[in-house]
Amino acid sequence: MTSQYGSRLKFRTWMIERDLDEETADAILESMLPFEWSDIARQGDMVARFDSMDKRFLQIDQQFDRVDERFEKIDQRFLRIDERFEALSSRMDTGFYRLQTQISSLASDFHSMSRAVVLAVMAMAVTLAVLVLTVGVAALNT
Questions:
Q1: What is the reported pTM?
Q2: Whole-angstrom distance, CA of residue 73 vs CA of residue 79
Q3: What are the boundaries of each domain within the chain?
Q4: What's the rounded Cα separation, in Å, for the pair 121 and 127?
Q5: Distance (Å, whole) CA 16 – CA 23
């Protein structure tokens, strides 16, 4: 919008020269817009501008809808992945439980076998001691 300061000053001077007092001339100038009427947007221009903006916002809304759809698909994929991880976790828990049970069973078996070996070694030692004593006593008697 272009300023019309020079034209306004000329108009004020013209009103004062025509015997209009300065206060009235100033009041008239204050009530006038400080730019040309051609610089003011018409209603048709505003409607066209708003229609253009509405179309742009509609395009943006459609783009957001497409982005939302993509995010929804990604969310569904993550849900399927989560389900797969849950199933895998459950299978791993079951496997670890079985492994722990087998290890406990092996430890118990090892403990039992160790006890049996120790008892067998002790029995052999006692048998050997009895044999040595028997041979020793027999050697002394002869």
A1: 0.43
A2: 10
A3: 1-40, 41-141
A4: 10
A5: 10
